[in-house]
Design brief:
Blueprint lengths: L14 E7 L5 E10 L5 E6 L7 H12 L9 E7 L4 E14 L6 E11 L6 E9 L4 E3 L6 E5 L7 H26 L5 H10 L3 E2 L8 E2 L1 H18 L3 H13 L8 H16 L2 H4 L3
Antiparallel strand pairs: 1-2, 2-3, 4-5, 5-6, 6-7, 7-8, 7-9, 10-11
Helix pairs in contact: 1-2, 3-4, 4-5, 5-6
């Protein structure tokens, strides 16, 4: 199936394993490097338990798993090589599998994303979600997003990937009614700020009893909250859209927007599966 896609050297390049050496030129036992064969650039260094998975094989496994799910075979693809090809984000978008934005009647499309890396920073992962066309923004949330995440020390199971795709597809069909419910749940400005401070804008501190705020993140979230309120009113749907926008629109403030986007999406998925989110009723 991969031969139907447009492959480029940005992400679909050959790799090989090579020993790595210390500063004296001696081989470091139990370690190896992954190198691009076309440029001989090192993509990552790993221990002996690491199983390399090429970007091509990662995409192929997900597309083979799609064969076990009964749904449209009409899809578009998008590939993004990150950090010189060390990481890959691939998107498989299904224009005929659609839902509807409850507030403005625009369309969402079912999407499968594939993540992989050679430097060990991203596990091999497939996830499903909704691509929201009113701002070309991926709507990432626990109810319509399923994830199949595997370390590079394990072999990917096609049946497991297929099951997660089916789970995500089933949830996708239920999203419209849930989004309508969120429109009816009132959220004040103070509630939104408190929620942001305790979740996405919460700064890390080793002191468990101390709560710190990332003020830059808080400002970005509140600015977007006000914009969503202008469109949808003060409700849970506006809060959701503010967070989704924050998670994906990283080009304006990050030197590594693709990596920041991945990190933000992971945070958002966790927040939207949390008790704090579910308690907003």
């Amino acid at each position: 199936m991969l031969d139907q896609l447009t492959a480029t050297s940005d992400w679909d390049f050959p790799i090989r394993k090579e020993p790595v050496h210390d500063e004296r030129g001696a081989i470091i036992p139990g370690s190896f490097g992954i190198f691009r064969e076309d440029t001989y650039e090192c993509m990552g260094v790993h221990g002996s338990s690491y199983k390399e998975l090429t970007h091509t094989d990662a995409v192929t496994r997900v597309m083979e798993a799609m064969d076990n799910v009964e749904f449209s075979r009409d899809y578009d693809t998008k590939f993004e090589a990150v950090d010189g090809g060390r990481k890959l984000r691939a998107e498989i978008i299904f224009p005929n599998i659609t839902g509807k934005n409850p507030a403005i009647g625009d369309i969402t499309q079912f999407r499968i994303s594939v993540l992989n890396s050679y430097d060990g920073s991203w596990a091999f992962e497939s996830r499903t979600d909704a691509l929201c066309l009113w701002c070309l923004n991926g709507a990432v949330h626990s109810q319509t997003s399923s994830r199949n995440k595997m370390k590079h020390t394990l072999n990917a199971n096609l049946n497991g990937i297929s099951a997660k795709i089916q789970l995500g597809l089933d949830a996708f069909w239920q999203q419209d009614s849930q989004w309508k419910e969120w429109l009816m749940i009132q959220v004040t400005d103070d509630m939104a700020e408190t929620f942001f401070r305790s979740t996405l804008a919460k700064a890390y501190t080793p002191q468990k009893q101390v709560v710190k705020t990332n003020n830059k993140q808080l400002d970005r979230l509140l600015i977007q909250w006000r914009e969503e309120v202008r469109l949808y009113g003060r409700n849970k749907w506006a809060l959701y859209n503010a967070m989704t926008h924050w998670s994906t629109h990283t080009e304006d403030y990050s030197k590594q927007p693709s990596i920041t986007r991945k990190n933000n999406e992971d945070k958002l998925i966790n927040v939207l599966g949390s008790a704090k989110w579910l308690e907003l009723t």
